[in-house]
Recover the amino acids of this structure.
């Protein structure tokens, strides 16, 4: 009997019985297997040219008797295998194996031939020859190959196997898991779809560099041919389709390719929805859940999604097309692409692009951006059952006022739940409870009334707990206590500007490189500055100190750039923030004249709120040229020596504390620094930026930097803004309430 493929009908044994005058036919399915079967498992050995590698050969005994098998390995030309012959003891209906050393002599795709012999009832028998694929390639090279059953693409990161019958693809991670991490399902080209039209087709493989082309003819159609192109590029897999109509009539088709993953490797899912990125635990029962995602296509802000696990992200960039999204379980989102192919013409369409490798959802979002599958909106992270301020962060004079709380719930299935609000200890109010039914497109809303605190000005956490079904979410939302009286005074004396709000006093000199030369809380000076003359600061020359705007055209590393040579023009400015509060202060306009910076325009603002511990530094920049600019922009903040003695930053959900005065130390974090000493000093910036603190000895002096770590790219005509907050004084008992300052619902 011949061996059958796994999806072919089994062999049958038919038995006929004549019983009580009737002829009965009984059929029994019979599975035919190899007596001795050898395989590499899921992976294909991948050997570097001129190097050795150890691989394991699995051997399986299908007989009911223990045997001793002799494995003979035949020479494969550009591939040397050691040992060439070895005996293996195999238990009855059991498994065994051996390690083989492979040495790649010449690049290529090889089929290693194995001969396995064994003794059975005193007779020496030989199993059918086993042919196993082996790849020999150079570093960074993509190798391709095919057997009678599968085609392969292999590089340093991934192994892609595509079944020639039906075209189902499997993706394996080369380093680490070495298991299937992604399945590219059989293409749905129809109508009809189930079973897929091409599931029974034997496709013809062809290779062009790192691209695999699979050719086939659609059954039941008049000379309708298709070719699927699969390209492996690092951790990215591109798909496209060409359909050629050689018939006499127009053909109308729908093409769809989806991917599924094993929940074994996946913890979280990220989906762009309603102008935000929804990040939740991956749960097929609740989220995304079957039928629980919205079906309104226009709500999916960008055409991608990401599934994330430990050191692994699996992403899918959905192709353009007129078809609607299909929302499933493990494949989540995909789209059917309508295609009309007139007679004697061919058309090509883009398919799904997959990503499999390290990173997070931003890795997939950046890939989608390069493919033009984003709408250019700034996305903030969110979740299902996400409590948030409906308008903006409440700024409460003396802690009195209102805030409008809402809960975002983007799921198709309604859910009953309870919301508990616990007020900060500073407030006179303690707790409130609400019961509701969460529904998509009908967010829960409620007004919270704040009746006053017994605490200082600053930011305080409001605890919000949501319990709904199996979901329990605890979230902290910020409320800000400001002074109820006073005003921001803005005065000018020559080139020196004075900003004062009853709590903070800031001095800025537009002729001193636009630098903030002094920042005081009462009589306590926070900044170090050489004002009124520039000086040197270790490796910085000239050094203007204080709060200093920095601009460096990349790849130049000249520090502090050339901005200090430009003319700063100041004017009083006011600006209404998202919270509705009026910020006042100084705006410095700069139009650089130096050749490296020509065509850029800067708008630098120092802003205060009345009787509050907030100073906002706003770095606005616009590219008026037709040239894509790459720049390093920063706020440099030089701190008065000895004023701060300890430092905290966020690492995950934890606050990490370190003592200062570590000679030459360079500390880096994201979003939040908290320094303590003679006063408390908090610096907060956006998620795309990095905060760093450099400390220099003799005497110990600290230098803070806030800005994009790898630089900022500006397209022609593009404008961007970096906002950094200094909050003095502010004790930090919670971390989560500060990250939202630069989100969409922040102070600006």
């Amino acid at each position: 009997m011949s061996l059958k493929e796994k999806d072919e009908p089994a062999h049958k044994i038919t038995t006929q019985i004549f019983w009580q005058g009737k002829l009965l036919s009984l059929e029994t399915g019979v599975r035919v297997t190899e007596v001795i079967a050898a395989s590499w498992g899921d992976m294909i050995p991948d050997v570097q040219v001129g190097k050795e590698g150890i691989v394991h050969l699995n051997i399986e005994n299908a007989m009911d008797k223990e045997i001793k098998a002799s494995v003979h390995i035949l020479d494969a030309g550009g591939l040397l295998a050691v040992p060439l012959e070895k005996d293996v003891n195999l238990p009855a209906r059991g498994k065994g194996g051996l390690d083989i050393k492979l040495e790649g002599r010449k690049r290529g795709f090889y089929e290693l031939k194995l001969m396995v012999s064994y003794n059975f009832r005193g007779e020496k028998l030989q199993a059918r020859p086993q042919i196993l694929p082996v790849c020999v390639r150079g570093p960074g090279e993509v190798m391709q190959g095919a057997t009678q059953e599968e085609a392969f693409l292999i590089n340093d990161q991934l192994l892609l196997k595509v079944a020639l019958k039906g075209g189902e693809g499997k993706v394996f991670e080369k380093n680490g898991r070495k298991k299937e991490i992604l399945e590219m399902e059989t293409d749905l080209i129809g109508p009809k779809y189930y079973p897929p039209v091409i599931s029974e087709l034997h496709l013809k493989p062809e290779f062009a560099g790192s691209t695999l082309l699979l050719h086939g003819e659609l059954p039941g159609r008049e000379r309708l041919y298709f070719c699927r192109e699969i390209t492996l590029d690092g951790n990215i897999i591109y798909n496209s389709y060409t359909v050629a109509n050689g018939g006499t009539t127009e053909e109308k088709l729908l093409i769809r390719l989806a991917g599924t993953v094993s929940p074994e490797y996946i913890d979280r899912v990220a989906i762009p929805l309603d102008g935000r990125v929804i990040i939740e635990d991956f749960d097929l029962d609740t989220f995304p859940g079957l039928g629980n995602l919205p079906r309104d296509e226009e709500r999916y802000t960008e055409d991608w999604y990401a599934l994330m696990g430990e050191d692994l992200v699996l992403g899918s960039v959905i192709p353009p097309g007129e078809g609607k999204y299909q929302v499933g379980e493990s494949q989540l989102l995909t789209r059917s692409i309508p295609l009309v192919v007139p007679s004697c013409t061919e058309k090509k369409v883009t398919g799904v692009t997959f990503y499999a490798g390290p990173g997070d959802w931003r890795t997939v979002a950046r890939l989608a951006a390069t493919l033009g599958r984003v709408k250019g909106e700034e996305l903030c992270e969110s979740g299902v059952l996400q409590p948030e301020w409906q308008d903006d962060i409440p700024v409460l004079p003396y802690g009195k006022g209102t805030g409008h709380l809402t809960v975002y719930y983007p799921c198709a299935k309604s859910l009953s739940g309870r919301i508990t609000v616990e007020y900060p200890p500073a407030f006179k109010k303690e707790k409130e409870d609400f019961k509701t039914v969460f529904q998509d497109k009908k967010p829960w809303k409620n007004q919270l009334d704040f009746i006053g605190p017994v605490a200082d000005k600053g930011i305080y956490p409001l605890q919000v707990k949501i319990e709904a079904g199996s979901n329990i979410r605890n979230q902290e939302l910020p409320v800000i206590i400001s002074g109820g009286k006073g005003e921001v005074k803005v005065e000018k004396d020559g080139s020196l500007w004075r900003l004062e709000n009853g709590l903070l006093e800031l001095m800025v000199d537009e002729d001193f490189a636009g630098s903030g030369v002094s920042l005081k809380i009462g009589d306590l000076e926070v900044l170090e500055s050489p004002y009124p003359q520039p000086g040197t600061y270790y490796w910085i020359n000239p050094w203007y100190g204080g709060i200093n705007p920095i601009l460096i055209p990349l790849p130049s590393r000249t520090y502090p750039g050339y901005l200090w040579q430009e003319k700063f023009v100041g004017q009083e400015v006011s600006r209404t923030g998202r919270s509705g509060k009026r910020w006042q202060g100084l705006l410095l306009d700069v139009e650089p004249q130096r050749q490296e910076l020509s065509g850029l325009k800067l708008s630098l603002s120092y802003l205060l709120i009345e009787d509050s511990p907030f100073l906002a530094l706003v770095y606005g920049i616009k590219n008026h040229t037709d040239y894509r600019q790459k720049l390093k922009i920063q706020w440099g903040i030089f701190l008065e020596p000895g004023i701060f003695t300890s430092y905290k930053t966020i690492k995950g959900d934890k606050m990490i504390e370190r003592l200062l005065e570590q000679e030459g130390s360079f500390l880096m974090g994201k979003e939040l620094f908290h320094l303590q000493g003679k006063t408390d000093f908090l610096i907060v910036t956006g998620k795309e930026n990095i905060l760093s603190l450099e400390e220099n000895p003799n005497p110990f002096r600290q230098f803070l930097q806030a800005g994009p770590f790898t630089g900022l790219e500006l397209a022609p005509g593009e404008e961007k803004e970096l906002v950094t907050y200094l909050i003095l004084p502010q004790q930090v008992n919670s971390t989560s309430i500060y990250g939202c300052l630069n989100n969409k619902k922040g102070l600006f």
User: Anything to note?
Assistant: The chain has one helix and 64 strands. The longest helix spans residues 361-370. The helical segments are 361-370.
